[in-house]
Amino acid sequence: MNKHSLQMLHCRDSRSELLESVSTRRMPIVDASIRFAELSSGEAVTHIFEGYAVKWNSINSHGEKFVRGAFADMVTAINEGTKVVHMYYNHGWRNFFDVNAAMRVGRWIEFEEDDIGLRVKGELTTGLHLANAVGAMMRHLTVDGLSICFYNISELDYEERDDHVLIKRVDLFEISVVDEPSDRSARINRQAETINNLADERDACDMLTKLGLDQIDARHFITKLDSIMGTRADDPSKDDDPFAFLDK
∠137-139-144 over CA atoms, to 5°? Predict the structure, then answer.
């Protein structure tokens, strides 16, 4: 990558002041979820994850909003094998003084524009120490953000609105797993089908508060449910209503 190509890249990250020639914006994981699968092949373990790099209804901290279809040409090129979008941790390619930090940590294996946004699926590089560290942080929910880095946009491909810039067509250079994204809704998927599958009590509380419970009732419910489920495991005849305490 030459100096000219670097000057044309824009990363959606909150630390744009670090490089005058590169604007960096990150995108967070608030309403999205982190799905993480480990596929074992002999002794090697492949880490697969997915999430949204962009959400259509979100305006990032730089006043940018992406319209559905903005990535359509890029996705077509990727599917045809004529385009590659790279994967880094915290836009590591910018770290010219640290070879380890500048390494790519995996590859993106699936891109789709759906009703929510640009959904991506990634695979971390097996055996790479930095990729292993990123995978450990994602599983522990220490890190759950995604951030896009794109080339300069033609004047024909964006529109100035009163409170934001509407981007209608864009070409990505890379998508990074990041600590804090500028689009607070760009997150790795942390979805769970049942409370028993939730990563921890915090996720369960978040889910219940979104359904209308306050934090105290949410924690009370989780405690009661744990107790009830344990009782039923010992005695399946028990049929207590886990929501009964809400009527008191």
Answer: 65
What is this structure's pTM? 0.65
Tell me how far apart the alpha carbons of residues 140 and 5 are, in angstroms, rounded to a whole number.
35
C-alpha–C-alpha distance, residues 4 and 7, integer Å: 5
Contacts of 28 (CB under 8 A, 6+ apart): 144, 145, 180, 181, 182, 183, 184, 185, 186, 187
Two tokens, residue 188: 């790795």
* d(C-alpha 120, C-alpha 95), whole Å: 24
Q: From residue 244, how far is each of 116, 144, 225, 247 by CA, in Å?
A: 36, 35, 11, 6
Q: Is residue 152 over pLDDT 60?
A: yes
- pLDDT digit string, tens, across residues 213-223: 666 666 667 66
Residue 104 located in a structural domain: yes
CA dihedral (17, 103, 39, 35) in degrees, to 10, reads: 0
Q: How many domains does the chain have?
A: 2
Token duo for residue 203: 């996720």
Q: Tell me, yes or no, whether 162 and 41 share the same domain.
A: yes
Tell me the per-residue pLDDT of 52-65, one tens digit each, with 9 for 90 and over: 999 998 898 889 99
Range of the domain at 226: 195-247
The answer to whether residues 100 and 131 belong to one domain is yes
